[in-house]
Structure to design on (546 residues):
């Protein structure tokens, strides 16, 4: 691997397993005599998203046409956001280069209006912005020609703009001032849009530099410079005219391009594309894809993986996930029993395909990580030095009961059925509310930022807790509470996690948590404190089952 790539990887302070995983993928990309599928195994807190984003940054720098898919819009937006941030930090000329990155999908389902950080790479937004620049009468090229005419012969432009003896005709100076000011503003905006949104295949770095320099010249120019026809200012005008002419000649694109044409232009010339697996079918008529990256691959059904895998030209694939966490959700019990929810990632693992393990976790206090590490990962995961330092052990509430890992026995709770025959436990709801009140009081008095996640395997319990706490913490900037099901918390993390298990029955039934993948997710979301509200007999039964 070239030295500059290894040097770039070192700048991100990756651990050995992360660096090794990225290097193996980059080596596979350069292999021309065979097709490759690489698996990156990312247990909770091991920096899977960071590894993915650094891999994609390097593929971007190598000009490898790469499609990144994920099962959900949320997962797509997360990885796209990380990559855009990394790429933006590495660009030399403002946003020039972001035109080589495209995010596409359903605007409403993606809730893209809430993600300002992704506006610049979202396809629909990009097409709308470029469409205004490629209008025949008001586009960038028409405005360049108008500016050249104004700088070259302002009197002739003034004469042609009005009928002789027109009483409404302004003075020559006022006319030039207004026309120059508008053209300068329009060109500055249009040049910025072209640099930001056009792919580099359509706009070279040299042309982008000229646009930037021209904007600087126009900004420094005064109306008196435009009106005057001799002296030093005339040289400045001449330089500006020559640059504008050069820009026009350098961009070989039509004066007018429709929205469909702009969409094709963006997709066919992008190096990094982001979408859900189902949306990737849109690329079948586009230029060939060299490499496919599937994030959260263990959550993507095998049949859904087939959509991007059939794209023309595809030679290599990288699947990133963890089959020990939740698979894709299957509503039908029959389909689930037939393993229709199984992912391609899991199938390849079962077939003995080698996977590159990310073996260092940066999220959980060691007291929290030890049990899932032993039960689900065979003690293969190391605790990072940052979570082993004494300062990482935080005591949010007084008493041994609130150490890093605690079980609170709820012996008198009663399991009830809520909506849709889902279970709930009202006593646990009250206990959650009480613990949240105490934590909020600590946060308010100390000025300490605390994020809390409340997890329950049952929808009825989630709704009951949400109803109980209402909106009482919504206005607090330093205290945040998120209440979700186990399935809704995959990929999430908080300072404190409270797990309401609900189960309190004499049958010995442990319900949803009999699924080890679901249990793994519930156990691995907290950074500093994991608190379980449960019935002691249930804990004994669960540990026996484990």
């Amino acid at each position: 691997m070239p030295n500059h790539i290894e040097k770039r990887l070192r700048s991100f302070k990756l651990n050995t397993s992360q660096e090794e995983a990225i290097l193996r993928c980059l080596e596979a990309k350069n292999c021309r005599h065979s097709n490759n599928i690489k698996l990156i195994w990312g247990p909770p807190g091991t920096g899977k998203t960071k590894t993915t984003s650094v891999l994609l940054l390097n593929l971007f720098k190598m000009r490898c046409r790469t499609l990144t898919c994920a099962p959900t819009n949320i997962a797509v937006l997360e990885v796209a956001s990380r990559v855009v941030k990394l790429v933006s930090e590495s660009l030399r000329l403002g946003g020039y280069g972001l035109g080589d990155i495209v995010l596409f999908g359903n605007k409403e389902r993606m809730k893209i209006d809430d993600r300002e950080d992704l506006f610049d790479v979202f396809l629909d937004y990009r097409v709308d912005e470029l469409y205004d620049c490629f209008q025949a009468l008001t586009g960038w090229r028409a405005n360049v020609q108008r500016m050249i005419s104004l700088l070259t012969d302002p009197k002739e432009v003034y004469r042609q703009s009005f009928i002789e003896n027109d009483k409404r005709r302004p003075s020559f100076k006022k006319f030039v001032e207004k026309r120059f000011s508008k053209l300068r503003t329009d060109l500055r905006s249009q040049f910025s849009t072209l640099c930001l949104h056009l792919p580099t295949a359509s706009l070279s770095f040299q042309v982008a530099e000229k646009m930037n320099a021209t904007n600087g010249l126009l900004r420094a120019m005064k109306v008196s410079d435009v009106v005057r026809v001799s002296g030093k200012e005339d040289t400045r005008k001449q330089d500006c005219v020559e640059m504008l002419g050069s820009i026009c000649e350098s961009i070989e694109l039509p004066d007018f391009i429709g929205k469909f044409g702009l969409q094709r232009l963006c997709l066919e010339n992008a190096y990094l594309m982001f979408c859900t697996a189902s949306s990737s079918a849109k690329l079948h008529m586009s230029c060939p894809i060299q490499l496919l990256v599937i994030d959260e691959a263990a959550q993507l059904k095998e049949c859904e993986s087939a959509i991007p895998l059939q794209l023309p030209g595809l030679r290599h694939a990288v699947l990133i996930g963890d089959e020990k966490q939740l698979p894709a959700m299957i509503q039908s019990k029959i389909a689930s029993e037939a393993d229709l929810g199984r992912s391609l990632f899991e199938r390849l693992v079962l077939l003995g395909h080698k996977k590159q393990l990310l073996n260092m976790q940066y999220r959980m206090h060691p007291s929290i990580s030890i049990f899932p590490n032993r039960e689900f990962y065979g003690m293969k995961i190391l605790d990072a030095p940052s979570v082993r330092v004494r300062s990482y052990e935080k005591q949010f509430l007084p008493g041994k009961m609130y150490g890093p890992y605690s079980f609170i026995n709820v012996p008198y709770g009663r399991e009830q059925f809520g909506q849709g025959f889902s279970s709930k436990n009202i006593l646990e709801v009250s206990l959650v509310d009480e613990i949240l009140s105490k934590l909020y009081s600590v946060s308010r008095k100390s000025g300490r930022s605390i994020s809390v996640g409340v997890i329950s395997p049952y929808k009825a319990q989630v709704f009951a807790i949400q109803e109980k706490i209402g909106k009482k913490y919504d206005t607090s900037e330093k205290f945040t509470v998120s209440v979700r099901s186990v399935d809704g918390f995959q990929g999430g993390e908080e300072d404190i996690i409270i797990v309401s298990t609900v189960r309190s029955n004499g049958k010995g039934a442990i319900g949803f948590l009999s699924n080890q993948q679901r249990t793994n997710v519930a156990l691995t979301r907290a950074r500093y404190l994991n608190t379980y509200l449960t019935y002691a007999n249930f804990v004994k039964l669960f540990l026996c089952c484990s």
In short: The mean pLDDT is 89.
